[in-house]
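Usage example:
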Amino acid sequence: MAERILEVENLTVDIPVGGGMLHAVQGISFHVDKGETLCIVGESGCGKSLTSLAVMDLLPKKAIRGANKLELGGEDILNAGERRMSDIRGNTMGMIFQEPMTSLNPAYTIGNQMEEALKRHRNVSTREARDRAIYLLEKVGITAAASRLSQYPHQLSGGLRQRVMIAMTLMCGPNLIIADEPTTALDVTIQAQILLLLAELQREFEMGLILITHDLGVVARIADRVAVMYAGQVVEQGTADQVFNRPTHPYTQGLLDCIPIPGKTERNKPLGSIPGIVPSLVGAFHACHFAERCQYAFAECVKGDIDMRPAVEDGHEYRCLLDPETCRANAQKRGVA
Amino acid sequence: MLIYALKRLSIALLVAVTVSLLTFSMIYLSGDPAMALAGESATQQDIENIRRVYGYDQPIIVQYFNWLANALQGDLGHSHYLKTEVSNVIFARLPVTMTLGACALGFALCLSIPLGVLAAMRPNTLIDRFALTLAVIGQALPSFWFALIMIFLFGVSLRWLPITGSASWMNFIMPSIALGYYVTPAVMRLTRAGMIEVLSSDYIRTARAKGLRPSVVLFKHALRNAIIPVVSLAAVQFGFMLGGSIVIETIFAINGLGQLAWESILRADLPMMQAIVLVLSCFYIVLTFLADLLNAFLDPRIRVS
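Running the assembly step on the lines above writes:
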């Protein structure tokens, strides 16, 4: 069995708001193994980003984090404390953010910002840190790396800045990288380059990678496993093959129905859409979160919490009252399986 | 960087020319300067003589360039009242005012920047409220009243500090506080607002995600960016303080430029007032120019195009 890098069990994030408590993340469990890419997908506001910030312990001050278990390489990081966490952050666990235009400090050179990441965690000379920075800039496909070090962020394009961010995250050789929609702010042509680069680096350095995105096309290409989130919960989780080829939860099926898949989607057939909007997560809410928008919903769906249950294959689970066979039949009827 | 500096320098020179024009025309503020000089009992012949001796009979444009050429050589004219060269008096008084201004600005920055940073780190807490209260009071209190209260408290009642003169550093404590206190609110509020904005920015999150120490995040990454607008403001405020020093120096009987200005106004010593306005304006221009350069040093987006 592969080495387990991250283990998250029953993670919750609550945010006090004017009208009560916003239950943004409600009991999420997942794990990442060495050399594995886990994609967390879901629409805006479903709690993807908060989940990643909760793992890094970088949540906004007023947000409240809870979990049964949060372990990084076997070490408990749930109760680690800020001092220990700052030793871990950027060292064994790094994060890439979605806004490359604003994620680098405008006042310092690329070199300064990359070197400080390594110097903070390793006892190295400026010379060594500089060499490492040049090596990594070349790794992420930046030409004339040495001269880039003395440039400032505003002199680089968005795509280049994101490459710099990726290189900076790799400075200490982390075991786990969390990439929170790293390509949302970039041109479409650059998006694919950056994601393939990430996948390539992840393989080369045998890191665990959590990729948060709402771009299913991307997920299909680089994910080993996929977790589909909806309204603060994971509604389906499994290997990329399971989730894409045998989608079980009605929401996953709906999502896949919305995108054209070469060789699968019929020609001239209109793409699907999911009617309705995401429910408010303020206050207690004991029902299937997707029931209101689900075409298969029945009375039982809104009478209590729905638990995750195993699908047909190992490691594939989903959160729905319908049994796997019915789901399978629905998927085939919709043309997404 | 060089292009930026040259651009700023040329703007500064333009402002200086404008100021010199305005200052020069001050002499005509009270009507015919020759008539004003000659006094009420003068004959027409006296006035004509004075006009010729002081060059008031020449075209104004010639007078301006003569005056400007002299000023550039350090000759700021002759005080009719003190019967001496204006520049001698001004350069004797200047160090006192500069000391006062520097101390006041130092006091203001040392108080307002740490308070602003603290308030930004803990918004809506006790320290933030305290800073806000201080700012409101500072903005509302007239500096002369505040100065009088301090004189009464620390000078008269407690007898800790001397209340007049400029003999020792002790003399500068109260005037510096009175003068500097007035600019504290603006600098503090700007520091606070800037820090709050910067602390919630993406690059601060990046810095934390790199595991940097809180002090490094705060001072290296946040303050460096938040301080940029404060530099410009501080330069402007220093200009206000030079004006404010007229009141403060008079109250504390400090023998500086401010008090000289006040005396010259009372004596209608026009050449002296003219020179003081010119010198203070030039200081203000130089300071603004230096602030621009400091900003360019702090912010590479200005420096590197």
